[in-house]
Structures are given as structure tokens and as C-alpha cells.
Write a structure and sequence with these properties.
- The chain has helices at about 5-15, 20-30, 35-45, 70-80, 85, 90-105, 110-120, 125-140, 160-170, 170-180, 190-205, 210-230, 250-265, 270-280, 295-300, 305-320, 330-345, 355-360, 365-380, 385-405, 420-435, 485-495, 520-530, 540-550, 605-615, 620-625, 630-640; strands spanning about 50-55, 60-65, 145, 150-155, 410-415, 440-445, 460-465, 475, 505-515, 560, 575-585, 590-595.
- By secondary structure, the protein is of the alpha/beta class.
- A hairpin with a 2-residue loop joins β11 and β12.
- The protein starts with a helix and ends with a helix.
């Protein structure tokens, strides 16, 4: 039986036109080269009986050799038919999720022996995996109980079971493409399509505004409800939990949806289930337009929430110096987004965010700002905001930051060109078309006329003529026909980059190829190094761990960027650590750790630093280059070449 990882290795080798190294396979699949070598050894034992084998060419890589096409083709067909086998998890983290799904989809007990047999693991390995399963279930106030001779099953409130189903049966990334198709774990695709069509028809007729994500989420929730009701598991809401719901427009819409679903899918919904759907609708409705007048805004967004948003934005400015306190558009956007969110969270309803991982990776500064909303809304409104909601808030912060960037003054320059008006104008229009919102060419001139032009209000000079004399503004020398290096020099200036791109790196705070077993041990090791070096005091570590508790700082591509809740030092700098082996970081594999110490005063410095980090962490090839570094100067040189 092939594990999912072996299937991936086989797919990579089948698709390859030349040999593939263990390092390349490790990069693509997200494991170590040693794991690849071990898997290939095991995979070869199966392939040798199936018409082929994997040839290892010393110093070159691996190549799939097919000796008997007919036998190998039959083997592939057999593997495809055994789709469940190809989906079997191959790591402890994958197994934990698989077991959670298995338990959620089974209405009764499952014997541990049966579970171990299905996963091809020992009973002792399964017992270790169940520790992780219990940890996940605790987040949803669910328990795993056991019964002699019967096995284990999940117990807890029905609404909690459904939230857990919603979270662990659907893939975030695929949700962006088509969330409905994933729901066939719950119901046949034809039934899912019927539910979606009914919802869409009713919300349109009632003029309830919903986003595509909210619409698909509701479809999934109703599909789960249908499955659970057929298994005689019902949501139990106390009367006070849905007091006033019956008078809401959303209840009438929910009733219309339920009536049609009952007829189409032959399932009977009790009144509490209708109220459950109404609460979901209440928590997803939105005002279709952003340009609302003050009266309409205040009638939609309650006063306590408006006060909480003001406090949150003030806190963001206080901690991160983003200067958003006077951004009225941000205030309005957050109010319109958070009011329905508040309605939903009061009933404990979750809204999955399919963009969460991408938001955390691409907008880390905005995500850190949004994290501050948790404390404010908990204190002000007694509401707990989860990571998914933080991600949505981070998007609004990102928009505000982009809007602020676009409103900043455009850089003004003069072009000095010795080869005539035609060349100067070509240079001018090339630059203005490439940087329309960043650069304004005020004038073009010959070198000998430069002393006749006032440099007042000019940020810099772009020249094709080498200049020896110093002027009151910076001078950038370029070729008349702009090349890549010329554009890089101009972009460095526009983005306030210095010639030394590694200002954030300190050589004494680089630690390579360390053997640290856990996330906690890694953070403790780095914090001790920074404290010992005299950059921060002992409270720094507690703040880093507090931030980590709110949301893991692993960003994919084997990278984690732990940092404190608030700025601790005057300057911003990195403490880098690479590990010999990847470690588990709340479900993600991590081997490159960058501990940030965020500066208190220089906001542009902070934005630039995050730009540099994103350039690195988004590119798996760059990360792997850094992981191979064995000397500090080699890592510094590698980073400098990347940016």
C-alpha cells in the first residue's frame, strides 16, 4: 500500500523529463531529503514487483525506469481505484486530522483496532495520535470518550460538533475555488447543488446582501445540518438563545429555505434548526455599499461597536505607529464588516476564512495589527474573535495602509541627459509609465544647463552623465537605455532602500544548523541569546510567547517569524536560526526561524523590513538556499543577493 507521500514521489518522477535529486523532491513535497531516500527505498520494493523501479544515479539523482509497460499500467490503475489508499496520511499531523474527520463522520463508536488497521499504524502510535485529536476537540468543547469493547466516539453539544465538522472537513485553499464541491463528504453533489440554488433564490428574493464566501458557508452549514438531522442529531437552543429571532426578516427567509429543502431532500427540520439558519443569515448580511450616510451607518452599527473600533484603531497606532487614527474610510469599513460578525459571534457561530494562510503570509504587519482587536473586543463587548475573523480585519487594515501609501507625496526628479531631447524624453516617458504613482519627472535638461535649474522641491536627479560635483539632492547614475540594474537603483530609492540591504541583520544574532526539538525550545534559545547580547530585557520572551498563543507565527515554506506583542527596542532587527531538522510549529513544519525585535519609532523601517521578509518567505527556493548555509557570512551574503 502506497502512502500519500509515496504517491507524490511517484507522480513527480513520472512527470520529470530528466533525473530528479532528493533535494528537489524534498523541496516539492515539503520533507527532508533523508525522508525522501527512505520513502524511495520502500517504494522501490513495491515497484520492482509492478513493472518498474527507481534508479539512483550517484551524484545526479533519481529516475523512474519502466521495464514492463503493461504490468506498470495495471499497477497504476489499481492504485487509482484504491483512492482511499492514496489519501492515507503519512505524517502524525496528517493522521490527527484524518482521525478527527473519521470520528466526526461516524455517528457511533469506532474500535481502535479498526482505526489502526485502516491507517496501517500500530495501536501505540494511534494512542499518541489521539492526544493530538483530543487537543483539537477541546477547542470546540468536545470530548473523546471510550467504551470497553466498543471503541471511541466524540460527544458534545450539537452546535459544537457542527462547527468542528465545518472546520475540519473542508480545505481552506480549495474553498476559494469551489466550496460546494467539498461538501460531498456530507451529501451527494446533486443535493449540494439543490441547497445552493434554493439559498440563492431566497436571499435574492428577500434582498439580503451576502458575500460569495458567506453564501457558500451557509450552503455547507445546511448540508451538515441535513446529515446530522437524518442521524437524529439536533441543535438544542434554549428559548433565550433565540429570543426575538422569530420577528426578524432572516427568520422568514430561513423558513422559506427550509421548506424548499425539506421538499427537495426529504428531511424534516425542527423549529430550532430554522432559528439556527436564521442566526447564520443574521450574521452574514451586509450593507451593499460603503458610501453610507452617517444616519444609515449609525442605525446599522451599534454604538458599543463603534466605540470599540475607535479604541482598536487607536491601539494599532499606539503599538505599531501606522497613523490610521484619522482614516474615516477604515472606520466605516470595519463597522459594516464587524456588525454582522458580532451578531454571529454572539451565538458562537464561526465563519471560515479561506484566505487566512495567504493573509498571514503576505500581510504580516496588517495581521499583527488585527491581532490587537482580540483584546479590545473581548474587554469592550465580551466577544472572542478567532483567527479567521482576525484575517478579515487584517484585510481592511491592509487596504488602509495601501490607501495611505498612495496618498503619500510622489517623488519629484530631474533628468540630466547629454544625448539630446529624444533620448531624454524616451527616458522620461519610460520612467513615468513604469512608476505612474511614485515618480514625477519635473524637467529634462543637458548637463551644462543644470546650474540654471532650481532644485527646490526636487527629491533626486537621474543622470546619464557622470557627475563629480556634489549637489543638494541625491544623484542616481543610469544608462540612457535603461537596464535592469538601472531600474533597481531607482526602485531602491523610491522604496527608501539603502545600498546595505541587511541593516536588519546582526552577525552575532545568526545561529545556523541548530538541533532544537520544539517550537518552545527554539523560542527560548533565541530569546536567551538576544537577552544575553544586551538588546532586550527578560520580559521580551514573555511577550513573544503571548503573541504566539494568540496566533501561530508559522507562515509555510518551513518559515516561522515569532515576535513580541509590541515594539521593545529603538531599532528593528532580526535574530536568525536555521535548524538541522524541521520541527512542528502548531501543525506546520518549520526549519527557518526569524525572531523579530520591532523598533518603536521608525514605521517606514518596519514596512520595509516586512517587504524584505515577504520576498524571502514566499519563495521556497530562497528558503532552501538559506537552510543550506553553514557560515554566518554565507547567510548574510545570500540574503543580500536575494533582495
Amino acid at each position: 500500500m502506497l502512502s500519500s507521500r509515496m504517491m507524490l514521489i511517484l507522480q513527480e518522477l513520472m512527470a520529470a523529463k530528466t533525473t530528479v535529486t532528493s533535494n528537489d523532491l524534498a523541496d516539492r513535497i515539503g520533507v527532508t531529503p533523508r525522508t525522501i531516500r527512505n520513502d524511495i527505498k520502500e517504494l522501490n520494493g513495491i515497484l520492482l514487483q509492478s513493472g518498474g523501479f527507481i534508479e539512483a544515479k550517484r551524484g545526479i539523482g533519481y529516475e523512474l525506469v519502466i521495464e514492463n509497460n503493461k504490468t506498470f499500467k495495471a499497477f497504476l490503475q489499481n492504485m487509482t481505484q484504491k483512492s482511499n489508499a492514496s489519501m492515507l496520511p503519512s505524517s502524525p499531523e496528517e493522521r490527527v486530522i484524518y482521525i478527527v474527520r473519521m470520528l466526526l463522520l461516524n455517528n457511533g463508536y469506532i474500535k481502535l483496532d479498526d482505526m489502526a488497521d485502516e491507517l496501517y499504524i500500530s495501536k501505540s502510535t494511534l494512542q499518541n495520535d489521539l492526544i493530538g485529536v483530543k487537543k483539537i476537540l477541546t477547542k470546540f468543547n468536545l470530548k473523546l470518550i471510550s467504551k470497553p469493547y466498543h471503541g471511541v466516539k466524540i460527544i458534545g453539544e450539537e452546535m459544537s460538533v457542527r462547527f468542528c465538522l465545518s472546520e475540519y472537513l473542508f480545505n481552506r485553499e480549495e474553498m476559494l475555488i469551489d466550496m460546494q464541491k467539498q461538501a460531498d463528504f456530507i451529501l451527494p453533489q446533486g443535493d449540494i447543488n439543490k441547497i445552493y440554488t434554493i439559498i440563492l433564490k431566497e436571499v435574492k428574493a428577500s434582498r439580503i446582501e451576502m458575500s460569495d464566501i458567506a453564501l457558500n458557508n451557509l450552503c455547507i452549514h445546511i448540508a451538515i445540518a441535513c446529515k446530522r438531522i437524518r442521524e437524529e442529531n439536533y441543535v438544542q437552543l434554549a428559548p433565550e438563545d433565540f429570543a426575538g429571532i422569530h420577528t426578524q426578516t432572516e427568520y422568514k427567509v430561513a423558513k422559506g429555505i427550509v421548506t424548499q429543502i425539506e421538499n427537495a431532500l426529504h428531511v424534516s427540520f425542527p423549529k430550532t434548526e430554522i432559528a439556527y439558519i436564521a442566526i447564520h443569515l443574521l450574521g452574514t448580511k451586509k450593507i451593499a455599499k460603503i458610501n453610507v450616510n452617517p444616519e444609515e451607518f449609525e442605525s446599522f452599527v451599534e454604538s458599543d461597536l463603534r466605540s470599540a473600533i475607535k479604541e482598536f484603531i487607536h491601539k494599532v497606532d499606539e503599538h505599531l505607529k501606522l497613523h490610521l487614527i484619522n482614516d474615516h474610510e477604515l472606520f466605516i469599513a470595519l463597522g459594516l464588516h464587524l456588525q454582522p460578525t458580532l451578531n454571529r459571534l454572539r451565538y458562537g457561530m464561526n465563519m471560515r476564512n479561506p484566505m487566512l494562510d495567504e493573509i498571514k503570509t503576505k500581510y504580516p504587519l496588517a495581521f499583527d495589527a488585527a491581532i490587537l482587536a482580540r483584546e479590545v473586543f473581548n474587554k469592550r463587548l465580551a466577544i472572542d474573535i478567532d483567527e479567521d475573523e482576525v484575517g478579515y480585519i487584517a484585510l481592511h487594515i491592509s487596504v488602509a495602509m495601501l490607501r495611505q501609501k498612495m496618498q503619500q507625496d510622489i517623488k519629484r526628479c530631474i533628468i540630466v541627459c547629454a544625448t539630446g531631447v529624444g533620448s531624454a524624453m524616451l527616458l522620461k516617458y519610460r520612467l513615468q509609465s513604469k512608476y505612474p504613482n511614485q515618480l514625477q519627472v519635473v524637467d529634462t535638461t543637458d548637463f551644462y544647463r543644470l546650474n540654471e535649474i532650481s532644485l527646490k522641491g526636487i527629491d533626486f536627479i537621474i543622470t546619464t552623465v557622470p557627475m563629480e560635483r556634489k549637489l543638494a539632492v541625491p544623484i542616481i547614475y543610469v544608462n540612457t537605455i535603461l537596464g535592469a540594474e538601472d531600474l533597481r537603483k531607482i526602485e531602491d530609492y523610491l522604496k527608501n532602500r539603502t545600498e546595505n540591504k541587511i541593516d536588519f541583520l546582526k552577525e552575532e544574532l545568526i545561529f545556523l544548523q541548530k538541533d532544537l526539538p520544539t517550537k518552545e525550545a527554539t523560542i527560548q534559545y533565541l530569546v536567551e541569546k538576544v537577552v544575553t547580547a544586551g538588546y532586550v530585557d527578560g520580559s521580551f520572551g514573555a511577550s513573544v510567547l503571548k503573541r504566539e498563543e494568540l496566533s501561530p507565527t508559522s507562515f509555510g515554506n518551513l518559515v516561522a517569524i515569532p515576535h513580541p506583542m509590541e515594539p521593545y527596542t529603538t531599532e528593528t532587527f532580526w535574530t536568525i536560526c536555521t535548524l538541522k531538522k524541521p520541527i512542528d510549529w502548531e501543525g506546520s513544519h518549520v526549519q527557518f526561524v526569524c525572531l523579530l525585535s520591532i523598533g518603536k519609532n521608525n514605521t517606514s523601517d518596519l514596512k520595509l523590513m516586512y517587504d524584505y521578509l515577504i520576498e524571502i518567505i514566499e519563495n521556497k527556493r530562497k528558503v532552501n538556499q538559506l537552510l543550506r548555509c553553514e557560515e554566518r557570512d554565507e547567510l548574510i551574503e545570500t540574503i543580500n543577493a536575494m533582495l
